[in-house]
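Give me the 3D structure for Thioredoxin domain-containing protein.
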Amino acid sequence: MKIFRILMILVMLFSLAACKKTNNTANKVEQKIEKKEPVAAVEKTENKDVVVHIESEEQYNQMLKENQFVVADFYADWCSPCKKLAPHVVSLANEFDGKVVFLKINVDNVRSIAAKLRIDSIPRVFFFKDGKDVEIVKGYMDLDEFRNKVNAMMK
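Predicted structure for Thioredoxin domain-containing protein (155 residues):
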């Protein structure tokens, strides 16, 4: 009986020691995650000036009137294909800087534009020349296909 009590005490001590070690590991993981967050924020702010984020229908209409070539990317934050397309939008906005204006319109924030254009799926990319849409692409495009569509719009 005495041996059984000693074994039970040892098992409890090992259990407590094991629990304490997992907390240290969890803290280390949390610290690593905290250190990486500011990098993502910097990447977002770097791209902010290249692509115009539309906040209202008036702003959208003004951009179409003032610019000869406009590419409008309709997206949502929760949409996986939209997230996959986003770096292509930024890349082409840099490549065609000064020639083509790239817009990003969040359909959850500016619903009036999405309703007028009858956007029922995203991503949806509109290519505008002189305020009129010359092509509409539903779904994801790879970078080369996207570039070809921008070049075709500019002809």
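The longest strand covers residues 69-75. Let me know if you want a second pass.
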